[in-house]
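Note to self: the last two entries modelled the partners one at a time, which told us nothing about the interface. This time every component goes in together.
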Amino acid sequence: MGILEVKNVSKRFGGLKALSDVNLSIAENTVHALIGPNGAGKSTLLNVLVGKLIPDTGSVTFEGQSVLGRKPHEINQMGISRVFQTPEIFGELTVMENVLIPCFAKRDGAFRMHALESTGREKEMVEKAEAMLIDVKMIDKRGMHAASMSRGDKRRLEMAMCLVQEPKLLLLDEPTAGMARADTNNTIDLLKEIKSKRPITMAIIEHDMHVVFSLAERITVLAQGTPLVEDIPENIKGHPKVMEAYLGTTHGEAAE
Amino acid sequence: MDAIILQILNGLDKGSAYALIALGLTLIFGTLGVVNFAHGALFMIGAFCAVTLNRLFSLSFEVVDPTKLDFLGNPAKIKTAYVEAWFGQDFGAAIIDWSVPLAILFSIPVMLAIGFAMERGLIKHFYKRPHADQILVTFGLAIVLQEIIKYFYGANPIPTPAPSAFTGSFDFGAMLGFDVGQIIYPYWRMVYFAFSLVVIGAVFAFLRFTTFGMVVRAGMADRETVGLLGINIDRRFTIMFGIAASVAGMAGVMYAPINSPNYHMGMDFLVLSFVVVVVGGMGSLAGAVLAGFLLGILQSFASMNEIKSLLPGIDQIIIYLIAIVILLTRPRGLMGRKGVMED
Amino acid sequence: MLGLDRKDFTLVLIIALVALLAPFLLNFWPTESGMAQFNAGYPALMQRFAIYGIFAIGFNILFGLTGYLSFGHAAFLGVGSYSAVWMFKLLSMNVLPGIFLAIIVSGLFALVIGYVSLRRSGIYFSILTLAFAQMSFNLAYSVLTPLTNGETGLQTTLNDPRILGASRTAEGGIPVPSLFGLEMNATSIWKIGGWEFQFNVGYYFAAALMVLTFYLSIRLFRSPFGLMLRAIKTNQTRMSYTGLSSRPYTLAAFVISGMYAGLAGALLACMDPLAGAERMQWTASGEVVIMSILGGAGTLLGPILGAGVIKYLENIFSKINEGVLHGWFDFLPEVVKEPLVWLFARFTGEGWSLTLGLIFMIVVIFLPGGLMEGARRIGDLFRKRGKPSDDDKEHHPKPAAHVAE
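The predicted structure of the combined assembly is written out below.
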């Protein structure tokens, strides 16, 4: 029984079947990659997992609890964090403030007024945020406007914001999209480091096979809205069905 | 039954004005993505076009007629309007009498010019600015426009009569078999309603059957793509703004006989028209028209004495109340499309 | 100090000092001189500075921090005034119960309106608040006349019960709002040379409250709560993916700013125990918006500055009539004088609204960041000239300006 269980999930957009009868189980403390050609339904699946989309049929459970029908902030409170394809950060705030916000956000999401406390004087929070920034090697940029940073830095900041919450499951939507090789490698190292430091489950959507094979412990290949193969990386390489899905065949449906 | 018909009729003229202003607002919003708080001022300027023309036609000169004496025994001065002198007594008088309908012809170029100037000079620079900035700058412009009008025309309402042919009332009651005098409705309001239907129909036909309109509609659905197609959107936006301005202007011209124009009438209508747009659905033309008539009629029902005694004050707040309920239950309005203003 | 860092504390001290010395600072010219009409150091105007300062500080907590543009804040101002006047009528002329009730009532009112309006954002929010304010305005004029006295406005009379005070003074007049005997309209005048300085109880009371509310707003700006509000303005998606629902934060900000407006409304009633519905009209809401924008929305000092500038200009501009203008341009030949007088007269006196509209446009077009932004730009200009060798920017990434300065 995995930490995240997707059972028989289908989703239609008008006439387009984005997901059909998807079953997926992500085991605790593994790095699970979701790959597949464009339009395979990866992003749709991710949006279902974080509560942005509600599937037509099927169930999604996290640690035995259904996530369907919950709002994004409620799903985050269950312990699921998400890194976006285009980094979603607080552009007008400083790097430090960006990381402080998830620090102040209670795990249960409860609203706390603390209108008369001083952000800078909350020692515990500030230290936690600083430690996180050191981890992602951004401590020297703590005073910068988040919006003025490079894309790679924004991505790292977003990851720091997710990680400081100590999520049980981290969803990464193409974490290295548009990055230079060196940045990509840094990201891989960063994720490996995180993984080695504390138990965390990661689900990665990625096009870059270098990243996938460096990180993933299990890989699911999606094609046309349905999982094709799920296996360890070694077996995925050169798998005929995968080749077919990526390169296409004259008899598309024959992949079944 | 007769009371209901009467209230529906009473709501039509206000509803027509709401619909016409809201139509322009939503046209501007849908195509240009601009929230125009100065749209009410355009309506007001339209009404003052009617006032201006009326005054121009009434300009007269005095001739001393020695053959007649006034009550003091002095030679009488006879005022003659220039138009009467130029075009003959009867035709001149008719021109003065018909100054409000004629003002429509006068208002179209004026409003187009104002619209073009506004779009090129100001609005253009605010396409990419936040809606809050658009609201504020057009709000400022509205104040400026109304102060200018106030300077030239004063603060008091200026009665502007409809042509004498339309001064009476029509007895709908008699026509429909009710008692005589039960449902009477001024002719001019009927004209106003018919006029607004024509204008609305013309705008819809223009958007539906011309290439220009097709591009505009495509632009309303997806601005970026149309921009990418290499179509010169800018020029069309300017023209669209001019059209919206003249629709508001014409609505104002024709409204002048119903409510004597004053300099702040635009603001009064603007707030309600915005509510109309929101109720109809931001960016939906049909929604704006529908909501305009609907709210106009509901408002007139709410001002019935029977309802007022049941729910005191309801006539004052009905429109806002409906807007609040609609926004909370159908956030996109009656006919709003997904994705408009939902960032 | 007081939970603020040194810089903020200095700022509060400066504001307090300026407020304290305002009767001196704002009396630029001797009373007898022709320029005396430009003085701002008289009670009625200084009270307005302080009161509208509070109003704008409160508005800024909502608009400046969260970016939610409310077009109906005048409703809370009006509610505050009505509440205070009712306390004057029923309880006593002491200002404290009135202010207390005004803050409570406007807070509750804001809670209801905010709860509904904040379900939408962007322009929909603006229109919802506008609709609520117009509704309140219309109701105050019509059905709620027993509460608001309709068009005449609510005022104290000789027949009010005032159970803890006197219905009428010993002289038979209506008592004046006071703070434990200190009457709000009491003014002591101090003559030095040609100058005449006026120290008014009402002004100092309002100013003290303004400094207090300013202090509270700094605390709020620097708090985690303020941080959350700024986060909401920047990116609501990330906010919800951080496990936070933005609604309670925006609602809290809305209620706080509503209470500030209620306080301001109550103070207006303290200075002149009269409350009319026009205080709730949307033009009044627009006024506080322009105050915040003119000063600089989201900055600490901006709103006070904006409120001061608008109220000062309003006062001065409305006073200048053609007679005054003729006096000014008397030295010019007639041919030049007449057109100049005509031109200036369009923007002064009755023309103040026109000027306000133009200020609106000019600020939004040319200075979206407001006066504070302008001051910062000028400051930058001088700093650059000061040390021209500051060219290794790449090694020192530009630090973000500290929160709201």
